[in-house]
Amino acid sequence: MIGLFSELRYKEVIDVHSGLRLGYVCDAEFDDAEGRLCSLVTPGRARWFGLFGREDDYVLPWSSIVRVGSDIILIEAEKLQRRKRPRRMSF
Question: Contact 26/83 with Cβ under 8 angstroms?
Answer without folding.
Answer: no
